[in-house]
Specification:
alpha/beta; 313 residues; Rossmann fold; 2 domains; 11 helices; four-stranded parallel sheet
């Protein structure tokens, strides 16, 4: 059995694959999630502009008594802040819409993570949006900015970081130290994740909490992380790991939080395909007997066929 680079159409495409083309099968409600964060961001921009105007206008008379040029200087400072924020929001929107790095998307992601997200939490509460909804929107925006950087890594530089709650609650096998201890019984998603990591030689780790997750990242020093967790753990993990690119996938909780959770394996596979960018080597032959290529995962061809029409906020 030989090792061959995965061909286009197998779900692990080459340079023709863009973030906008892939869009990495986000749930249908993901578009409103992004719109929520963007809407709050635009409102905050207008709020800052109004506040700057008030802060300039109120002391206008007093400042002119100190020096005739002080009101103009203060207006220039506040105006520069508003303009810079407006330009930043515009570039952020273009990056998300086009799915490509327009200008310093890495720095923009840092701005979103370190500055705008905490502000959005406060502004969102004013309008009655739950913290969980804003966190979902934040994860979605972060993912778009990570994809826009078009990071391409070798399999040994990628880390699949999973929460312990994916393991079946009744399972007695300890996998947090070594996922290869998994017995592959198929009662939880760990079996599929282990097989996927072996197939493409990607490191898979399971963490019981944020402290262990940070230790794993420091130990393995990946260049990109595909992480699965709840809203709270994903947002804190993305913030703690910056500037390391983290693509976040929200887990599914059919039985409630932290208990026998699930993950969309198709999203994990396609995210891997985007970042590996054709570098991955399968341990199986690329083509089965008869020379027919392996079929693409369900939905992959549909996402790739979207092209420019698939770009949406």
């Amino acid at each position: 059995m030989g090792q061959k680079t995965i061909q286009k159409g197998s779900g692990f495409s080459d340079d023709s694959l863009t973030a906008a083309d892939l869009n990495l099968p986000l749930e249908p409600e993901d578009k409103p999630k992004k719109r929520l964060f963007i809407g709050l961001l635009i409102f905050t921009c207008f709020l800052v502009a109004a506040l700057a105007t008030v802060l300039w206008w109120v002391p206008y008379v007093g400042l002119s008594n100190i020096h005739p040029l002080l009101p103009a200087v203060l207006a220039a400072v506040f105006g520069a802040v508003v303009v810079l924020m407006g330009v930043g929001v515009a570039v952020l929107l273009l990056t998300i819409v086009l799915g490509r790095d327009i200008f310093l998307s890495g720095k923009l992601r840092g701005l979103v993570i370190k500055v705008l997200f905490p502000v959005m939490i406060v502004v969102g509460k004013i309008f009655g949006f739950s913290k969980q909804r804003i966190q979902q929107s934040f994860v979605s925006i972060n993912n778009q900015l990570v994809l826009a950087q078009r990071s391409s890594v070798a399999p040994d530089k990628m880390l699949l970081l999973m929460p312990h709650c994916l393991q079946n609650y009744d399972c007695k096998v300890k996998i947090t130290g070594n996922v290869d201890n998994c017995k592959r019984c198929g009662k939880c998603p760990i079996k599929d994740l282990v097989e996927l990591s072996h197939e493409y030689d990607v490191k898979l780790c399971v963490a019981t909490g944020g402290t262990i997750a940070r230790r794993i990242v420091v130990t393995h020093r990946p260049k990109v992380i595909i992480a699965v967790a709840c809203e709270r753990d994903l947002t804190s993990g993305i913030q703690d790991s910056y500037p390391l690119p983290v693509y976040g996938i929200l887990n599914r909780r059919p039985h409630g939080p932290c208990f026998n959770t699930q993950v969309d394996m198709e999203r994990v596979r396609q995210a891997m395909g985007f970042f590996l960018n054709g570098r991955a080597q399968s341990r199986d032959d690329e083509r089965p007997a008869g020379g027919t290529p392996h079929p693409a995962p369900d939905g992959t061809d549909r996402e790739l066929s979207k092209g420019a029409s698939g770009k949406a906020v």
